[in-house]
Design goal:
- By secondary structure, the chain is an alpha/beta fold.
- The chain is built from 10 helices and 9 strands.
- The strands form 2 sheets. It has a 7-stranded mixed sheet. It has a two-stranded antiparallel sheet with strand order 1-8.
- Helix 7 packs across helix 10.
- The longest helix is centred in the last third of the chain and has 14 residues.
- The radius of gyration is 20 Å and the shape is elongated.
- The N and C termini lie far apart (58 Å).
Length: 262
Amino acid sequence: MIKAKKSLGQNFLIDQNILKKIVNITEIKNKNILEVGPGTGNLTSHILSKEPKKVLVIEKDEDLAIKLSNNFGDKIKVINKDILSVNEKKLDNDKFVVFGNLPYNISTEILSKWILNLDKNKFWFSCLILMFQKEVADRIISKSNSSKYGRLSILSNWRLNIKKICDIKSTSFLPKPRVNSSLIYFQPKQYFFNINNPKNLEKITRIFFNQRRKMLKKPFNQVFNGNIEIAKKLNIDLCSRPQNLDFETYYKLVNEYESLRG
């Protein structure tokens, strides 16, 4: 019997009603599927029942990877790697529907990596259906003027439309985690702010939210060397706080930052 490894943040989803709900969120028949962190294959079985075109699973745990290969044979392709080391854009020429019960300890790192590494005019996925710790999910879906609003919500909403599907109680998992989870559905945006280097968005939000309770004046001066004309142009009150600026204002700030640097 496979035991969950705490070091890998493993909590296996066992609630059949939730598993069925997940695979019915979008049509997956004849689609390419990528499942991240399949664990013991509970969701994998439900995915296969929907007759997808191809199923790739990425599982870091070698014991689980072997178990998945033995249980499903040539119905799936098992990639025994750390998801953070995988270049998803090279997995296939067709887009994936992505499912993931992401390990709590690296979930934000995975999502940030996927967003920051997107090609300018091309997505390697058609949608993402991902499970997060509820507290992290609340940060992803938060809007400005909220205490949960910050770097993660600004980054996520740049190129993705986001919809929370449901909360999931800890009793739906084995072993039972200490916190509840949330399921989120992401779809690519057709229109989004053009940012030359996504890492500039990461940089500016990091500087601005480094002291989220402080006024904007200090981080603004740090980024723009006191150029007050940019604040006037974007109608920014430098006495307000980082959480008071909406998504669009942060994307415009990145545009101004990139313009100054040619």
